[in-house]
Specification:
By secondary structure, the chain is an all-alpha fold. The protein is about 75% helix and about 5% strand. Helix 3 runs antiparallel to helix 7, helix 7 packs antiparallel against helix 8 and helix 8 packs antiparallel against helix 9. Keywords: Membrane, Transmembrane, Transmembrane helix.
Length: about 150
């Protein structure tokens, strides 16, 4: 299998959860992920809050957000990415799931605090704070992976 295939599946899953699974031939899993993505997206008003946030109307985005549904999105999103990456031959290194898991965790926490946390006196809201939360999630995940891998080798 092509070494880049795992990254192709990862990027298709970033585009839409379930696409990587469909391309990997995991049709039932792929359809379930796509349906869950649409369900959470619609019930959490995610497309609407993305549009409002990109247009600079963060306060209205916060009002439109259904946080009870939107909080499911990060876990679905990052698990679908991990699953497609793993099924395409990635994730053979020990603890390679950690960056995905910690990104899901940090983005979920970012979603929880997105309605009242500001950065430089700017309210970030339910799109921008979760997006920024990916970075510390990746950092912690890769750091823990490196630490645990070194302990495993020692």
């Amino acid at each position: 299998m092509n070494q880049n295939h795992k990254y192709e599946m990862l990027f298709w899953s970033i585009a839409l959860p379930g696409f990587g699974q469909l391309l990997n031939g995991k049709y039932i899993k792929g359809i379930i992920f796509v349906l869950l993505e649409f369900l959470i997206n619609v019930l959490g008003s995610f497309n609407e809050i993305i549009i409002l946030s990109f247009q600079g109307n963060v306060e209205m985005a916060i009002e439109q957000t259904n946080y009870q549904w939107l909080m499911f999105y990060p876990c679905l999103y990052f698990f679908a990415m991990w699953d497609a990456f793993k099924d395409a031959g990635g994730g053979k290194e020990p603890y390679s799931f950690l960056p995905f898991a910690f990104s899901a965790y940090f983005v979920t926490v970012g979603t929880i605090y997105s309605s009242n946390l500001t950065l430089f006196n700017v309210l970030l809201g339910p799109v921008w704070l979760p997006i920024l939360s990916v970075l510390p999630g990746l950092f912690v995940g890769f750091l823990l992976k490196r630490i645990l891998t070194k302990k495993l080798i020692s």
